């Protein structure tokens, strides 16, 4: 009886191995197509419940991840930040409130429009702002300098306002948000939207849409912006090391911030989230400090330690392996209820950057973060099979010269095979 049972178990195991081998052969054959000859590709597909590696190809090699980096930023924020976004630190003495920036990106942001700081400051005769407690440079290491006037490359700062961009439109006349910069906007057919290191902005009169242009963040600009919303009572001071123990909280729930970052791949939010997370370690803000802390503590078990230099993935200095992404995605899946977790990710064919790709049959089967730079496209996240299994994957493509849409179509063949057959 025991021998018969043992033989049956051996048979079932061999059958399962044969089944997995067939899948691997299909994926291997697909990746062996001449389409992939002149690019670098890596793929890891993992079943977290059974701990089985479904498929592995160059999974331990380093790739340029682009915005897949935001998965690590999301993990950091979920580890370090509370359910409500911290807005700033402050202290009160008589009729003066001292406010210290901690990187909160939601203040007067065009999407979130949080006004916590403004509402509190209105109750005092004097407002003292401390804004120079950030160690980061205004741009991340390896960012492309020529992107200084593009919406996706705002400067980093300790107390952002308006998302650190000016929104310019032309209805009956040129308009700007913030209004304090309206006189700095000029009609021009220039290819650039702003002078290189000056808050002089240009709007092409042939346009009909609203454009967002990064502001040059300096003391002069911040004084002007604050004086516009709270005239005559705001002064800016240097950080003197004095500890402010009170914390005010934004009106924005943390998940709303995370979801916005992930769905539209917002670089500004990603960078500021790391700075904000660093405020839980020290009053001196540093995205490097929080990255090092997370890598050396919560993620010390990663099989390949990444080169992680920014929060957004704008830098080509970042280097991550598919294995590292799968490890972090598995941690998230273990720690966060699935419904909440999937709500933070773009859904294939339904939301965010995946609205037009990886369409499911009646409902999404892919919940994942894309990452795109010139000649690089990656996708890492979760795949739901028709049999109800949840797979974790990271599919990374570097250095191709073909259209990115063609790369996505090839990837979709593999995703659909896994969905239908695993």
In DSSP terms, counting alpha (H) and pi (I) runs of 4 or more, how many helices?
10
Poorly predicted segments = 11-19
Distance between the termini: 32 Å
Order of helices and strands: HEEHEEHEEEEEEHEEHHHHHEEEH
Give the integer mean of the pLDDT values.
93
The largest sheet has its strands arranged as: 2-1-15-14-13
What is the global morphology?
globular
Strand percent estimate: 15-25%
Structural class: alpha+beta
Number of strands: 15
Please bin the fraction of helical residues: 25-40%
**Major beta sheet summary:** 5 strands, antiparallel
Number of domains: 2
Rg (C-alpha, Å): 24 Å
Pfam family, one: Peptidase_S13
Family: Belongs to the peptidase S13 family.
Enzyme class: hydrolase
EC number: 3.4.16.4
Describe the structure.
This protein has 422 residues and is of the alpha+beta class. It has 2 domains: 27-76 and 277-421, Beta-lactamase (3-Layer(aba) Sandwich), CATH 3.40.710.10; 77-276, no CATH class. It is built from 10 helices and 15 strands. A 5-stranded antiparallel β-sheet has the order 2-1-15-14-13, sandwiched between helices. Strands 11-5-4-3-12 form a 5-stranded mixed β-sheet. A hairpin with a 2-residue loop joins strand 13 and strand 14 (376-384). The protein is globular, with a radius of gyration of 24 Å.
